[in-house]
Design goal:
The protein has 122 residues and is of the alpha+beta class. It has one domain: HIT family, subunit A, CATH 3.30.428. The protein has three helices and five strands, in the order αβββαββα. It has a five-stranded antiparallel β-sheet with strand order 1-2-3-5-4, covered by helices on one side. The longest helix is centred in the middle third of the chain and has 17 residues. The termini are far apart.
Length: 122
């Protein structure tokens, strides 16, 4: 059995979250430490610790997270302007909760690549 995380507690309604979407496969809620004017987390209800733990049979679940992101972008009115979807993996990738989650960031222009200064110094 997977280790219980803050996300599993949100799924089980053991702790509160500002939930903006839910279906049988996924749940989306506002990030408590937003990095953009809109910062939502989209999580699968199936606990998958990291990107490294995604199996072939999880492909539909992971794809569904992106479908939900697109729906939320339309629903919240930023689909046309654009948005960023990010999934971190492990410590060096910035993952802090070991239950995969798609960050949906919007509401401001975001430069690309985010590490432009690093490339200039390479």
């Amino acid at each position: 059995m997977a280790e219980e995380t803050i996300f599993s507690k949100i799924i089980n309604r053991e702790i509160p979250a500002d939930i903006v979407y839910e279906d049988d496969v996924a749940l989306a809620f506002k990030d408590i430490n937003p990095q953009a004017p809109v910062h939502l987390l989209i999580i699968p209800k199936k606990p998958i610790a990291t990107v490294n733990d995604i199996e072939d049979e999880d492909a539909a679940i992971v794809g569904h997270l992106y479908v939900v992101a697109g729906k939320l972008a339309v629903q919240h009115g930023f689909a046309k302007d654009g948005y960023r979807c990010v999934m971190n993996c492990n410590e060096h990738g910035g993952q802090t909760v070991y239950h995969i989650h798609l960050h949906l960031l919007a509401g401001k222009a975001m430069g690309w690549p985010p590490y432009t200064d690093t490339l200039k110094n390479a």
